[in-house]
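stage 2 :: seqdesign
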């Protein structure tokens, strides 16, 4: 499977003009805050459904336009970022299509791409708006602490962003979306949406389930074990503090790919269990050496300045 990397110098990137963000949570809020620092973005608009959220958002000055009026937020936008779960996409896309200007581009940041791309492409194809393009995206960034109060402008700095074009994508819209995510700090790779879901099941969704399972394993033991919990366990289980509602939805949307990854992991654990039962030092040492080497391939150790 080949990834197509995309890069451009800031001076060569086209003007992004007006960007609107639908959804003011951690990711959407961070997109808005980051966009405010991009010179080629002239106007940032932010939409929130709840009236009570608008007061907080207005105090933050996260965007030039902050409103619950979708026409006001997206009407003049060159790019609309859908910062909501997949389950909310259908209603939102049908709502904004009525108000988008000609040639506008839609992107998103859902962590499961095939359902998102299929939903939005289907709605666009069934509408009279064949001038609108959708280019899916998934920036690999976030936090176990959600909500706008945890949003920050540098959230996407250095993050990988998977760009997943669909049937409504065209070359120009793909370039616009890549330039946008790069402008707020991402490194972009272009990938098929189904391949994305298979890979992200292993590097994101499975780790979340495992972190949660480790916590549950601790609490199924004696209560004294909790007294000995240290920083290693805290690091391994940090992501288990994420939103249960959000993660349950993600897991259900990507159930086949996650199920396959879980089966592979269970087979590995069963093999490892036998090595532990047998106290097979050589095999255990080899397993741990391989894991350490592969971990450093994923995340090279930082060399100390001396």
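stage 2 :: out
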């Amino acid at each position: 499977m080949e990834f197509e990397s995309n890069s451009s110098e800031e001076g060569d990137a086209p003007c992004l003009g007006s960007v609107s963000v639908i959804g003011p949570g951690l990711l959407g809020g961070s997109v808005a805050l980051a966009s405010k620092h991009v010179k080629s973005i002239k106007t940032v608009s932010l939409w929130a459904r709840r009236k009570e959220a608008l007061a907080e958002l207005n105090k933050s000055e996260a965007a030039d336009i902050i409103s619950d009026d979708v026409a006001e937020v997206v009407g003049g936008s060159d790019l609309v970022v859908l910062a909501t779960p997949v389950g909310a996409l259908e209603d939102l896309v049908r709502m904004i299509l009525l108000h988008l200007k000609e040639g506008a581009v839609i992107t998103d940041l859902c962590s499961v791409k095939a359902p998102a791309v299929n939903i939005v492409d289907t709605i666009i194809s069934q509408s009279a708006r064949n001038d609108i393009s959708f280019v899916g995206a998934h920036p690999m960034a976030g936090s176990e602490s959600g909500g706008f109060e945890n949003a920050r402008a540098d959230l996407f700095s250095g993050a990988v962003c998977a760009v997943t074009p669909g049937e409504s994508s065209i070359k120009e819209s793909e370039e616009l979306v890549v330039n946008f995510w790069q402008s707020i700090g991402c490194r972009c790779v272009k990938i098929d949406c189904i391949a994305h879901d298979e890979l992200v099941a292993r590097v994101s969704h499975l780790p979340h389930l495992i972190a949660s399972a480790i916590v549950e394993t601790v609490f199924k033991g004696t209560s004294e074990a909790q007294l000995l919990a240290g920083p290693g366990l805290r690091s391994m289980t940090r992501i288990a503090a994420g939103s249960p509602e959000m993660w349950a939805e993600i897991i259900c949307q990507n159930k086949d790919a996650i199920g396959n990854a879980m089966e592979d992991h269970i087979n590995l654990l069963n093999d490892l269990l036998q090595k532990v039962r047998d106290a097979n030092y050589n095999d255990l040492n080899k397993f741990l050496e391989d894991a350490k080497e592969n971990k450093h391939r994923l995340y090279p150790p930082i060399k100390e300045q001396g």
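stage 3 :: structure notes
- The two ends are 40 Å apart (CA to CA).
- Residues 274 and 280 are 9 Å apart (CA to CA).
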